[in-house]
Inverse folding.
């Protein structure tokens, strides 16, 4: 679309340079606006993203993956609270933010959604999956770059399901955590093959459930890094924070700071 077409169509145009600058100052409204442009595949979004791309990267990006109901959202609320207590700012990209907000008792009024309220150090954004096969919204990677450029210290990405389709999260996150719940038995057996490749850290959540100990023994037999948590109470969260930090320290990223084992994809 040319500028003339845009004027004819009456569509609002964006000053991409101004938008990018505002994102870099951590302006929450600008962050939300840019992610919306990217979701809509608006060319202004891609243009603004390119202006951010030269910035230095410092955010630690962690993917939290697992079957629905395993406790991912509850864990993310606990992790976000723990990072905030240590003074770090947190951006969350999730398939379903409602459960993070309602389950995140510890975050309380610190949670700020989108651009409606003041930023108190936690930004939460829902990413529609839109039928994409990998379980990650197509713009999740770009949204993580935006949050990084906006200065968030930690970015947590919630993604549903484990297995082959989830390999995508490796391109987005420095560290991937797979969340499983006790009593999955057969499912755990079935996913062992592909899981370790994707997730160096396994969380056995719902550690308060009957059968947690035997599942834990089973998991520890084949994965060196299993953390037992009770997301509803916060038990095991400090250990999980430590495991994520240890993994991040021990794994190099690309020279430009982007995560993942594969070459950085071109931003179009
Ligand atoms: N008993 C127990 N319940 C939990 C635990 N973690 C999460 N839940 C509950 O399990 C349900 C699913 O949690 P949610 O975080 O929404 O799972 P998600 O679908 O993986 O994001 C909710 O009702 C949570 O309150 C836990 O450690 N113990
Ligand atoms: Mg959830």
């Amino acid at each position: 679309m040319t500028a003339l077409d845009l004027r004819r169509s009456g569509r609002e145009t964006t000053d991409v340079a101004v938008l990018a600058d505002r994102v870099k100052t951590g302006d929450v409204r600008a962050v939300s606006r840019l992610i919306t442009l990217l979701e809509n595949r608006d060319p202004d979004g891609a243009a603004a993203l390119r202006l951010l791309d030269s910035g230095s990267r410092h955010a630690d990006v962690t993917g939290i993956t697992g079957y629905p109901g395993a406790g991912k959202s509850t864990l993310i609320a606990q992790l976000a609270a723990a990072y905030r207590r240590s003074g770090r700012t947190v951006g969350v990209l999730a398939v379903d933010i409602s459960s993070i907000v309602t389950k995140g008792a510890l975050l309380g009024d610190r949670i700020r959604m989108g651009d409606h309220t003041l930023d108190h150090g936690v930004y939460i954004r829902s990413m529609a999956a839109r039928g994409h096969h990998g379980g990650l919204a197509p713009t999740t990677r770009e949204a993580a770059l935006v949050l990084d450029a906006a200065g968030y210290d930690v970015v947590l990405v919630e993604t549903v399901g484990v297995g082959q389709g989830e390999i995508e999260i490796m391109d987005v996150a420095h560290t991937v955590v797979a969340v499983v719940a006790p009593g999955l038995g057969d499912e755990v057996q079935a996913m062992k093959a592909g899981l370790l490749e994707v997730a160096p850290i396994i969380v056995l959540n719902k550690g308060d459930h009957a059968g947690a100990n035997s599942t834990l023994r089973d998991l520890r037999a084949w994965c060196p890094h299993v953390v037992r948590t009770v997301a509803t109470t916060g038990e095991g969260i400090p250990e999980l924070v430590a495991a994520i930090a240890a993994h991040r320290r021990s794994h190099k990223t690309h020279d430009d700071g982007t995560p993942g084992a594969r070459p950085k994809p071109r931003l179009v």
